Each structure stands twice: as structure tokens, then as C-alpha cells.
Amino acid sequence: MSKVSNISRRRSSARAEGGADYVAKRRELLRIAAKLFKEQGYQSTRLADIGREAGLDRATVYYYVGSKEELFRETVEGVLDANMAEAARLLADSSLSWVERLHAIYVGLMVSYEENYPATFVYIQEQMHQMGAEETAWARDIMKKTRSFDSTLIHFIQEAVAAGDLRSDVSPRLIENALFGMLNWTHRWFVPGKGMTGREIAETFWSIFIDGMRKDGHGAS
């Protein structure tokens, strides 16, 4: 049996057992990976860089993770799934108007960016479809989820326009690009604990947006 196969077998066994020390070290590697992916970019970061930052040699790193893609996957997937679940919850909440639902998911996203920093920013920054990663089954699944989430956001906007809460002379796609473009660009400058909170930033952006998008030309308080 090759050394790589033996390490893979030991890794699978350790993950199945779920020991506290093993879980803690994997979490540390995920944290370091997210940090380096954001600072250096996914393509430029090597598994060896992550191991060096964690004080582990290459063989030991493979005891905890099988590949750089595995770390990237775990860095972003949970956050994306949580945001999709929140969007689905709001979609089903008929007690809120469509513009209220749009507002809620907007603020919730920025709060999520802050709480899961820098995991979500890594995904936004890398723009997976530009990484050639769609060749893997996992990447195709992530892109499918991303498109589904995007469709939900467009649906919120379309319904808010149809309800007369937003102007109808601007296309829903342009509205989405303007609104969520402000949010997503924060990956270039936002750092938790320095300046405004994620919620404060989102509410400020929302007020700028809604003042220009209300059908009657008057913003909401």
C-alpha cells in the first residue's frame, strides 16, 4: 500500500471517529485556509502554505485534509447553504411584504459575511466560475446553488416591483446588480471589528438604495 493511500485510510478513520483534537485541528486548518485564500487568492495558495502556517509538515496536513479543494469547499459551502435556507424561509413568510423580504435577506447576508468572515468573502472574491472549477461535480453543484439563490433574489425584486413597492422603470437584473453589488464589494475593504458593523453597513446601503427605488420617490424610514 502506498504512503498516500495509507494516509488517506488513516484520515478517513480519524474523521469517522470524530475525536475532539482531530476536529479542532481541522477547524484550525479551515480557518488558516480561508485567511490565505483571501490574502493570496485560491490559485496562488498551496496546501504547503496552509500547513506551514499551521506548523504542520506536508504528510501531517494530508492526515487532516485530502486536498486544497476540500478546504475551499468546506470554507464556503456551509455558509452558502445557510443563506439559501434563510432565503427559502423568507420566501415562505407571507406576513412580510416583498420589499420587506428583500430588505431582510439583504441585511442578513451582510451579517452572515461578518459572522463567517472571511469564508463568504473567499467565495465572492474567487468567483468560482472563473476558476475552471466547474469541471468537478462539487463545483457544478455549488454553481447550481448559486444560480438558485440568484433566482430567489430576482423573484423578491420582481414581486416588489409588481406590488408597486419599487419602481418599474428599472430592470430587476439591474436592480439586483446595483443592490447586491454594493454588498459584495465589501470583500475589498470590510474587516469585522474595524469601523461599522455588518448590519450598520447593510442598513446604510439599503437606505441609499431604497431612497432611489421607491415608486413614489420617497424613501422608507
Structure explained in plain terms:
InterPro entries: Homeodomain-like_sf, HTH-type_TetR-like_transc_reg, HTH_TetR, KstR2_TetR_C, Tet_transcr_reg_TetR-rel_C_sf. Keywords: DNA-binding, Repressor, Transcription, Transcription regulation. It comes from Rhizorhabdus wittichii. This is TetR/AcrR family transcriptional regulator. The chain is mainly α and 221 residues long. The chain folds into 2 domains: 3-66, Arc Repressor Mutant, subunit A, CATH 1.10.10; 76-213, Orthogonal Bundle (Tetracycline Repressor, domain 2). Helices cover 71% and strands 0% of the residues. The chain has 10 helices and no strands. Helix 2 packs across helix 7. It is elongated and about 60 Å long. Mean pLDDT is 85; it is low at 217-221.
Observed structural traits:
disordered C terminus, Arc Repressor Mutant, subunit A, 221 residues, 10 helices, Tetracycline Repressor, domain 2, 2 domains, single chain
Largest sheet: none
**Structural class of the secondary elements?**
mainly alpha
Q: How many strands?
A: 0
Which CATH architecture of the largest domain would you pick?
Answer: Orthogonal Bundle
The CATH topology of the largest domain is given as: Tetracycline Repressor, domain 2
GO molecular function, one term: transcription cis-regulatory region binding
Protein name: TetR/AcrR family transcriptional regulator
Keywords: DNA-binding, Repressor, Transcription, Transcription regulation
Organism: Rhizorhabdus wittichii
